[in-house]
Amino acid sequence: MTELDRVDRRILNELQADGRMTNAELADRVGLAPTSTSERLKRLQKSGYITGFSARIDPHMVGLGLLVFVEVSLDKTTPDAFDKFSRAVRQSREVLECHMVAGGFDYLVKARVTDMSHYRTFLGDVLLNLPGVSETRTYPVMEEVKPEGPLPI
Question: What one GO molecular function would you report for this record (predicted)?
Fold first, then answer.
């Protein structure tokens, strides 16, 4: 992995703020020639610092107003059980993120659904049917205070 210099960090920060800006705009903001900026951008993508570009969609505008966090405990904590659960949870469209954690449970799931009724169906039909799930605890989000932030580069 290549070391990031001050300009690379500036490029990453600018792109986190606005990933749709043109190369010329980015070059102007970081104080480089467009050709140099384009070369750095390609290097940052090739080396894996930039993993992709996407649009941020307002979940409420597309009918996904309820955000929930769910603690998931498995009945066994073996490599095979972890692998089976990981493979299965990736198949759920409602699951935005899933993290294996240390502590009193095994995974923390972040999911988006339309409402509590949809969540009840998702819990019964999807989460509780994932391999090895023995227990869940759900935390519906009342207010999204800081939903997504840029990485502190």
Answer: sequence-specific DNA binding
